[in-house]
Specification:
The structure holds 2 protein chains of 2 kinds.
Chain A lengths: L1 H35 L15 H11 L10 H18 L17 H23 L2 H32 L4 H6 L11 H14 L11 H4 L9 H26 L7 H4 L4 H22 L5 H28 L5
Helix pairs in contact in A: 1-9, 1-11, 3-4, 3-9, 4-5, 5-7, 5-12, 7-9, 9-11
Chain B lengths: L1 H36 L25 E3 L14 H5 L5 E7 L5 E9 L8 H5 L5 E3 L14 E2 L1 H4 L12 H4 L4 E3 L2 E3 L19
Antiparallel strand pairs in B: 1-4, 2-3, 3-5, 6-7
Classes of the chains: A mainly alpha, B alpha+beta.
Chain lengths: ~325, ~200
């Protein structure tokens, strides 16, 4: 009984920390984009503008939460919830540090992939239920994009599974004690990251939103708190993909010895995640958005074969006893 | 022969496709590196309310009505500024004082319409209406943007410190309590008796 209560407390704390962190990311992103575009970014609310997200939240709470009369009401309301819940569920299998982590699921990696697939429903249903052409186009793009990028996202992490012999994320981290998997799985990492960007539909793969062509894509008709939920889901999934990259390829909370004793494992884990979040933001500032057909042909013609080659080569090396 | 040509051409195309793919990839990385470099460049932002940007003395901002060096209003109410104004934001009415001096009875500039083009300043024959480098005209109430004559008049001479219309012109007026008769203006010759016979 006490154990269950303790677990519930842990879950509550993780969620209570994740959501403000995701909100803070909005401010971090705007500041960083500002710096990279030779501007300042939001710096008015609180010291260095750190309370900008709070101000945004208050503003968004004050907005009218409008449900279009032409929409499919129930689905319209459920869609943003699915997105946020799926991403939060994925965090259940992330091992944050040697003794923090909600669940040591023995199929943790598969669970993550399953949740990533499920979160497509959020976007597709939002686009469909909105009953407007921009939203529908966005939802359709999201469906095609996510389905095709999921294929090689799964394939790219199979190399990791081959090398560590486990689907359990905690065991995958512990297997990297002798050396991070990025050394042997560099190609797999690049493919996973590209697929991850597409999964979280961030720039340059933000075609489901694509402000310049589709107004706001699948969430064109959304306002108020439901819009905020989509936003939260997006930033949570940025954090999630960063965390997964760290767990799978960069040794999770592990650090080489002289560095490891400087800071607690959890702090190292967060620092590594921050590095990838910064990378996501840099991608957003610097790269243009591809055309939709380019995106799909890039996925099927280049990424999928590369992922297969990576998997085959890893398997061959493994069989050849290259990794000992 | 033709077959081998075709084959080599095909191979060439294939390697081209690969190298363009690589080129594209490298170009994306280069773009990111170039953007990353901007971490260390200074922001161009001017943080406006705290940090005022420099406005040149001839910057076209808020309109004022100036006075001549004697402290009298320069405006003679000729209406040329109102005629020149492309958005019709100037309204005024001329009156004539007992001593012969012409003035604007009222002079009204609606700054919610004014586009700060400076045509009124160019049209003004007496350098009365002038634009100043003050651009902070924001108001909470639209009515407060309608400036009357007492709001527009300043105590100084503006851009032309020595110019005085009535000291130049041949109009009979009182200047500083002294009557300036015909022919008394600067660079003005005394009036000629056109009915006289003397050369």
């Amino acid at each position: 009984m006490a154990e269950i209560l303790f677990k519930l407390l842990e879950i509550t704390i993780i969620i209570a920390l994740l959501i403000p962190i995701a909100a803070m990311l909005v401010w971090v992103e705007r500041r960083m984009i500002g710096i990279w575009q030779d501007r300042l970014g939001p710096n008015r609310v609180g010291p260095f503008g750190i309370l900008q997200s709070l101000a945004d939240l208050l503003k968004i709470l004050g907005k009218e939460d409008w449900i279009p009369p032409f929409s499919d009401r129930l689905v319209f309301i459920i869609a943003p919830v699915i997105g946020a819940v799926c991403v939060l569920m994925s965090f259940a299998v992330i091992p944050f540090s040697p003794n923090i982590g909600v669940s040591d699921l023995n199929i943790g990696l598969l669970f993550f992939l399953a949740m990533a697939s499920l979160s497509v429903y959020s976007v597709v249903l939002a686009g469909w239920a909105s009953n407007s052409k921009y939203a529908l186009l966005g939802g359709m793009r999201a469906a095609a994009q996510t389905v095709s990028y999921e294929v090689f996202m799964g394939l790219s992490v199979m190399g990791v599974v081959l090398l560590t012999g486990s689907f359990n994320l905690r065991e995958i981290v512990l297997a990297q004690e002798s050396g991070w998997l990025i050394q042997t799985q560099f190609l797999g990492f690049v493919i996973f990251l590209i697929a991850g960007i597409a999964e979280s539909h961030r720039l340059p793969f933000d075609l489901p939103e694509a402000e310049t062509e589709l107004t706001a894509g699948f969430h064109t008709e959304y306002s108020g708190l439901k819009f905020a939920l989509f936003f939260l889901g997006e930033y949570l999934s940025v954090t999630l993909i960063s965390a997964m990259s760290v767990v799978l390829f960069f040794g999770g909370w592990l650090m080489p010895e002289p560095l490891a004793s400087w800071l607690p494992p959890l702090v190292w884990f967060i620092l590594k995640i921050l590095f990838f979040v910064m990378f996501f933001i840099l991608l957003r500032t610097s790269l243009p958005r591809p055309r939709f057909d380019q995106l799909l042909s890039f996925g099927w013609k280049y990424m999928l074969p590369l992922a297969l080659i990576n998997l085959l080569a890893t398997a061959a090396f493994k069989l050849g006893g290259f990794y000992g | 022969m033709a077959d081998s040509d075709n084959k080599s051409h095909h191979q060439k195309e294939k390697s081209n496709a690969l190298s363009t793919a690589l080129d594209m990839f490298v170009s994306q990385l280069r773009t990111m590196a170039l953007v990353l470099k901007h971490t260390f460049t200074k922001a161009d932002t001017v943080e406006y309310p705290e940090q005022k940007p420099y406005l040149a003395p001839r910057y076209r901002g808020r309109i004022v009505l100036t006075r001549d060096p004697d402290g009298e209003e320069r405006c003679v109410g000729c209406n040329l500024c109102a005629a020149a104004c492309p958005v019709d934001c100037i309204a005024l009415q001329q009156t004539i004082d007992e001593d012969g001096r012409k003035r604007a009875d009222f002079f009204r500039v609606n700054f919610s319409r004014c586009i700060l083009c400076g045509f009124c300043e160019e049209a003004c024959p007496t350098y009365a209406i002038q634009l100043t480098p003050d651009v902070e005209l924001a108001e909470y109430d639209r009515q407060n943007l309608v400036y009357e004559k007492e709001h527009l008049l300043i105590s100084g001479v503006g851009k032309y410190p020595d110019y005085s219309f009535y000291r130049h012109s041949g109009i009979e007026v009182d200047i500083k309590g002294e009557r300036k008769a015909k022919g008394g203006a600067q660079q003005e010759k005394p009036p000629i008796n056109i009915k006289g016979l003397m050369p």
